[in-house]
């Protein structure tokens, strides 16, 4: 096992964490005395140490000001309640520690000329990133109204946690962030996604100790095994242990150092522990730790890129331990030691607003003023309110500032994919329903060639189901990424693999997010039922995209493309646990300008849709299609026209000619499409003269009005397709309320009668799934006749026959364990004289009369 260097203890530089507690007012004096006594022996010169400490004080001052002040930003007059915000919102507890890290990363960047992306994992790191971006000038560059002077400082303070302002966590408004700071648990997985295929980048990921307790974060540590030092950048995790969450202690803060070292060594890291609150000793120890980590990272990468151990030809990522830092510092560091006789610094009471009564309690107001003046703002900012020149000199070169590097604004790096002509992946369809195929097969070939043309700009992410989801053609272009020793019996495993497989939806989706947010392209495929594991992640990403639209300097990103397969209707062998359609329900709660939902009915439509999705920007695209053999309906040319419209009438399955139909059979989804087309066939066969129109919807959003969704059909086009007053029987892949919400506001919306997934399922046959959820062809046909008044009496025999078929189905599958022959062998044909009359049920069969069509 190769390691870069051993851990650094708090005693390595001749200092101790057991220093006497000092008040904020005495902190500067104590710092000076310690420096003069030589306690700060380490990599930082006296001058550099002094300036870095004061830069840290400036960042801390700005964080306090964001929480409290609306006026008097530099305390050039005594602090009054008139200067305080009426509502005190924000989080102080994590700020000083994160500021400390940011200042030290600036020093490393300036000395080593390295590219570092700062990822703030703790829940409310917004004050830190706002303050540090303002100090380095990048905030004012993208927000010109927040000028780098006293007026801009006041504006920054007034914008924080106020109406129309900025939140207390990182967001798209923050130029040094590509990570939504409110979503605990995802910082580390985003960091790894960011460095894949970015060989020069280091993602410094600050993991909060409360965040470290979440399941996604726990799973994210294994990402290091998927890192290839020959082609990828590096992640430097900085586990920030400050002791407490909102009110309770954190698990790892209460874990002894030896156990933490063992834990993280086992996970593939070499931890350096930096702990204490003594100054300037903490500065020197952390600087030394950063230097060791950077040297370790570069050594691992240089050796791998020269073809030397530890990686070598086999790509053994398990042969490497990457550096990380465990930083133990007090919660609310440099803040009030006590308030009202209760300890604050180093306790949960420092989490949010340590002095919450400043507007009512003069003692609190005086304590706040003393706290802020302890940072000596008059020695940090000049007459105009700008950071003084000796401190500005610590800012890294313009292009390397963490608020200005393009990785934090990934659209600046984005280049369009080199796309093959998707028509080359057409499936030959000589006639509707005359070919049965697995729709994702051709998509796999399409993705294979995209990977070949874009070897450093596109990846496929997913659980261990690429083969299962019929995308295995991608392995002709790239293997799965190896994360340990490979064996002769392994299938498509190598160190150079670009297919990222791991049985964690959190990692798959999170890696993809980080990859996209830093300017690349990709897709994620998964089983439909388990996509819901990452509902909150997709929600946060969509919200990020929504907010990015408010800032012109945030350049467009490649869309997040999700393929849902192994869906609810064909998980008959896995059973009820795998039968769920709720992922789309959550996605459609997001704003219509950032989400798109597609239900391609066959292979040619699927490739067409995915070509569009991979070319799109700033969307979450969800594409749902089954992987089982199914009918292929449209030629490539017909699919092209159909997908460009989003929804259209299928003339081959309709009988309304140029006139008004009696009923519209609509469908969205591959299984609902089969049932709707089969229902049309049954109606035309058993009810001669019925006028049926079949409408297939591939882009769900077109159902909505343009007022509700930007690409919705105008009312004239909608009524040309669905008419104004004809009943519509809609077979939908998912929850029925989705369709009702989509057509809300359309003419006579009550005429839409929707059948969909109603959460009925079990281990059963494919057709029984649609029967259980009342969406079978027989249910649709009965519904159609029920809502056409002129046919109710004349079509009673047909309705009785359809009901009898449902009863017969119920009995047949329990006796034969498969669907009836007329279901298994059915195909579309224009010859309605073919008999589908089954033999009668055996006399006295116990299930012959048990079916209810309620």
Automatic annotation (TrEMBL):
Keywords for this protein: Lyase, Thiamine pyrophosphate
Domain of life, per lineage: Bacteria
Entry cofactors: thiamine diphosphate
Annotated Pfam families: XFP, XFP_C, XFP_N
Domain Xylulose 5-phosphate/Fructose 6-phosphate phosphoketolase N-terminal stretches: 45-412
Xylulose 5-phosphate/Fructose 6-phosphate phosphoketolase C-terminal domain boundaries: 627-828
InterPro entries hit by this protein: THDP-binding, Transketo_C/PFOR_II, Xul5P/Fru6P_PKetolase, Xul5P/Fru6P_PKetolase_C, Xul5P/Fru6P_PKetolase_CS, Xul5P/Fru6P_PKetolase_N, Xul5P/Fru6P_PKetolase_ThDP_BS
Biased composition (Polar residues): 1-20
NCBIfam families xref list: PRK05261.1-4 (NF003619)
PANTHER family per UniProt: PHOSPHOKETOLASE-RELATED
Record family assignment: Belongs to the XFP family.
Record-given protein name: Xylulose-5-phosphate/fructose-6-phosphate phosphoketolase
